[in-house]
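Lab notebook page, bench 4
Experiment: in silico fold of construct C2
Operator: M.H.
Input chain length: 66 residues
Purpose: comparison with the prior construct
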Amino acid sequence: MKKNLLKFRFLLILIPVGLFIRYIDIKVYDGFLSNNSLSEHYIYLGFLLIVLFILIFSIIYFDKKS
């Protein structure tokens, strides 16, 4: 079981990232950034940076374990 989990560990990273991208996509299409408010753009960039850092740290963590 653990061998199969290690084999597909990249899916553990890609699925949450895909869900996050879909969530952001829906928010943008619903008009999240349509009024050109600077604070909304900062919130959007902040979320993207947080996800990027989590992704980088998880890749480094999985790379060190293998």
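Observations: The chain has a mean pLDDT of 80. The CA atoms of residues 11 and 29 lie 27 Å apart.
Next step: discuss at group meeting.
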